[in-house]
């Protein structure tokens, strides 16, 4: 999950004061109402974060789960080993590749669609909005199947290329081409989210500024870059950070399309973590996931810094 | 809404001229086509025989329609079980979120108590934690609760989404404090007020929470993958991924695509009819 609501709540987190006598009556009820959340929070967020750090300093294996006394404290060994592992270091590179290409492409597509829908389409807008948002709710396992059929050696894409005389490559079997296909699936799944957030942001761009600029003779592109983009900067920033945090955790696309291959060229950090977990290397897996947690936290801190003045 | 004033800004100064309009709609149409093509393909492929798909995989519309794939899917492949598992998990998650997340959202919005800031901080913190960073210890917790390879183990961590708490808490500000104060003066307890007064008034927010938590529970892949050890606890996405990767089915496109339809269709139908709740959910939170 990403940090979106944080931003929305920054300004609203102050509660209204109530008379003291009421407050004391409400305390027990309040914690009773909060109890389920507190239990789930402790079991599946608080304890796991602490445990994750703890496990990452041990050689815990899957087989040790019922016999915790076999586990040895190994200090930072897992972390040192990880940074010596070409596969893990490669997975960091692949994750950033996914983020640095995927985020801008997703945003540009989402932004252009939002601007066109907002400015030039009126009656058909809900229809287009629904179509472009549908991939967000679609199940990724189903969609990845189609991606595989389309991009396999004798798939639809290559059949189409052959028809115009170009020999198609083995997309998902090529170390240079697999990642772009993986990114394309990520973009296809998420541009609808970006579009929706930009559409919401565009509602806040005052129209009179636009009209004044138009009367002064500013063309459509000029107004787009001189008025819309600057006024939309908070939304652009928000979308970029939301997508970055989300894409840093990319798992579904490479897991379903390539299992991280060929030659680990599409292996993301989440996928590496999951695979180490699958091998029973819980210590290594936790150390890898803790590094991912630090990276995501760093991006979140940057998000706070950038967004706080406006909130 | 500014919808009505928008066209005037276009017409003032530089109107969207007819050729531009045609070009824009052509581009939008092309983008829409690329977006829906995979859906069309899944649906049409599921209605063709496997031999038909293999002979010409690029065809978009089936030449003859057959429901054989669906019949085989539910009779031989274990999909009936996956479907039931998915429904059970989604039901637990949705009911949990409606009650527990609403209760937490109500307490954070309308009650005053010591530790409120701490509780709110916990909600914020759990939004920020990336799943990949905690699933190993989460699994250790599940094992220690003796819930590994159970449907409850799949559902339990999703029982109270922090996002759901945010949605309810945000909506609660719309409900006037006076309504709640009046009930208190009449001597109603906080639990009574929550169930009988707040929850019915929070209908739209509860609807959004229902949709969002259903969507997440239904589509989630990685956590069920971690918890489910045997095919008897597979949810639909896990079952579909396993089926499509199993040697016995890997070339049985028709069967696999029928599975894809079963996984995808309920959410797409819900989306079609309840679009505004999906949209509100994302507008409120910025996430899916």
TrEMBL record, chain A:
<feature type="transmembrane region" description="Helical">
    <location>
        <begin position="223"/>
        <end position="248"/>
    </location>
</feature>
<keyword id="KW-1003">Cell membrane</keyword>
<dbReference type="InterPro" id="IPR051393">
    <property type="entry name" value="ABC_transporter_permease"/>
</dbReference>
<keyword id="KW-0813">Transport</keyword>
<keyword id="KW-0472">Membrane</keyword>
<dbReference type="InterPro" id="IPR000515">
    <property type="entry name" value="MetI-like"/>
</dbReference>
<feature type="transmembrane region" description="Helical">
    <location>
        <begin position="30"/>
        <end position="55"/>
    </location>
</feature>
<feature type="domain" description="ABC transmembrane type-1">
    <location>
        <begin position="92"/>
        <end position="303"/>
    </location>
</feature>
<feature type="transmembrane region" description="Helical">
    <location>
        <begin position="130"/>
        <end position="150"/>
    </location>
</feature>
<feature type="transmembrane region" description="Helical">
    <location>
        <begin position="287"/>
        <end position="307"/>
    </location>
</feature>
<protein>
    <submittedName>
        <fullName>Sugar ABC transporter permease</fullName>
    </submittedName>
</protein>
<feature type="transmembrane region" description="Helical">
    <location>
        <begin position="177"/>
        <end position="202"/>
    </location>
</feature>
<dbReference type="Pfam" id="PF00528">
    <property type="entry name" value="BPD_transp_1"/>
</dbReference>
<feature type="transmembrane region" description="Helical">
    <location>
        <begin position="96"/>
        <end position="118"/>
    </location>
</feature>
<dbReference type="InterPro" id="IPR035906">
    <property type="entry name" value="MetI-like_sf"/>
</dbReference>
<comment type="similarity">
    <text>Belongs to the binding-protein-dependent transport system permease family.</text>
</comment>
<keyword id="KW-1133">Transmembrane helix</keyword>
<keyword id="KW-0812">Transmembrane</keyword>
UniProtKB/TrEMBL annotation, chain B:
<feature type="transmembrane region" description="Helical">
    <location>
        <begin position="82"/>
        <end position="106"/>
    </location>
</feature>
<dbReference type="InterPro" id="IPR000515">
    <property type="entry name" value="MetI-like"/>
</dbReference>
<dbReference type="InterPro" id="IPR035906">
    <property type="entry name" value="MetI-like_sf"/>
</dbReference>
<feature type="transmembrane region" description="Helical">
    <location>
        <begin position="253"/>
        <end position="274"/>
    </location>
</feature>
<feature type="transmembrane region" description="Helical">
    <location>
        <begin position="193"/>
        <end position="218"/>
    </location>
</feature>
<dbReference type="Pfam" id="PF00528">
    <property type="entry name" value="BPD_transp_1"/>
</dbReference>
<keyword id="KW-1003">Cell membrane</keyword>
<feature type="transmembrane region" description="Helical">
    <location>
        <begin position="22"/>
        <end position="43"/>
    </location>
</feature>
<keyword id="KW-0472">Membrane</keyword>
<protein>
    <submittedName>
        <fullName>Carbohydrate ABC transporter permease</fullName>
    </submittedName>
</protein>
<keyword id="KW-0813">Transport</keyword>
<feature type="domain" description="ABC transmembrane type-1">
    <location>
        <begin position="83"/>
        <end position="274"/>
    </location>
</feature>
<keyword id="KW-1133">Transmembrane helix</keyword>
<feature type="transmembrane region" description="Helical">
    <location>
        <begin position="151"/>
        <end position="172"/>
    </location>
</feature>
<keyword id="KW-0812">Transmembrane</keyword>
<comment type="similarity">
    <text>Belongs to the binding-protein-dependent transport system permease family.</text>
</comment>
<feature type="transmembrane region" description="Helical">
    <location>
        <begin position="118"/>
        <end position="145"/>
    </location>
</feature>
């Amino acid at each position: 999950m990403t940090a979106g609501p944080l931003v929305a709540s920054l300004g609203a987190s102050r509660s209204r004061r109530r008379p003291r006598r009421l407050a004391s009556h409400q305390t027990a009820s309040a914690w009773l109402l909060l109890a389920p959340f507190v239990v789930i929070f402790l079991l599946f967020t608080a304890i796991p974060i602490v445990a994750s750090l703890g496990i990452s300093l041990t050689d815990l294996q899957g087989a040790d789960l019922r016999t915790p006394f076999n586990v040895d404290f190994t200090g930072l060994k897992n972390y040192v080993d990880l940074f010596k592992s070409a596969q893990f270091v490669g997975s960091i590179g692949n994750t950033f590749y996914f983020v640095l290409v995927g985020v801008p492409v997703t945003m540009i597509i989402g932004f252009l669609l939002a601007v066109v829908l907002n400015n030039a389409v009126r009656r058909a807008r809900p229809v287009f909005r629904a179509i472009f948002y549908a991939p967000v709710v679609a199940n990724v396992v189903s969609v990845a199947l189609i991606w595989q059929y389309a991009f396999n050696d004798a798939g639809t894409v290559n059949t189409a290329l052959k028809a115009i005389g170009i020999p198609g490559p083995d997309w998902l079997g090529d170390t240079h081409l697999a990642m772009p296909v993986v990114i394309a699936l990520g973009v296809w799944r998420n541009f609808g989210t970006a579009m929706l957030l930009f559409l919401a942001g565009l509602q806040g761009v005052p129209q009179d500024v636009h009209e004044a600029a138009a009367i002064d003779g500013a063309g459509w592109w000029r107004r787009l870059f001189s008025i819309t983009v600057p006024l939309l900067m908070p939304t652009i920033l928000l979308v970029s950070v939301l997508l970055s945090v989300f894409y840093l955790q990319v798992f579904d696309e490479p897991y379903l399309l390539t299992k991280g291959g060929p030659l680990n060229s599409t292996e993301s950090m989440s996928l590496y973590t999951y695979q180490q977990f699958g091998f029973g290397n819980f210590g290594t897996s936790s150390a890898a996931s803790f590094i991912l947690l630090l990276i995501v936290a760093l991006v979140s801190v940057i998000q706070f810094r950038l967004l706080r003045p406006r909130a | 809404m500014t919808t009505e004033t928008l066209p005037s800004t276009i017409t003032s100064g530089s109107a969207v001229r007819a050729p531009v309009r045609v070009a824009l709609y052509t581009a939008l149409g092309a983008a829409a086509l690329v977006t829906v093509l995979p859906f069309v393909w899944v649906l049409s492929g599921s209605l063709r025989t496997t031999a038909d798909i293999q002979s010409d995989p690029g065809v978009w519309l089936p030449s003859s329609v057959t429901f054989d794939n669906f019949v085989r899917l539910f009779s031989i492949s274990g999909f009936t079980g996956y479907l039931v598992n998915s429904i059970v998990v989604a039901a637990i998650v949705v009911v949990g979120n409606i009650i527990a997340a609403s209760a937490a959202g109500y307490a954070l919005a309308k009650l005053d108590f010591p530790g409120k800031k701490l509780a709110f901080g916990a909600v914020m913190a759990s939004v920020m934690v990336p799943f990949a960073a905690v699933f190993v210890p989460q699994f250790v917790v599940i094992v220690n609760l003796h819930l590994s390879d159970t449907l409850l183990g799949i559902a339990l961590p999703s029982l109270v989404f922090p996002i759901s708490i945010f949605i309810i808490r945000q909506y609660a500000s719309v409900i006037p404090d006076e309504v709640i104060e009046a009930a208190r003066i009449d001597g109603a307890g906080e639990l009574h007020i929550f169930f009988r007064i707040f929850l019915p008034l929070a209908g739209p927010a509860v609807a959004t929470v229902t949709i969002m938590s259903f969507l997440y529970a239904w589509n989630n892949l990685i956590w069920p993958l971690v918890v489910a050890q045997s095919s008897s606890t597979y949810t639909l996405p896990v079952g579909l991924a396993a089926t499509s990767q199993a040697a016995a089915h890997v070339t049985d496109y028709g069967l696999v695509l029928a599975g894809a339809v079963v996984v995808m269709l309920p959410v797409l139908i819900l989306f079609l009819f309840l679009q505004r709740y999906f949209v509100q959910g994302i507008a409120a939170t910025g996430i899916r």
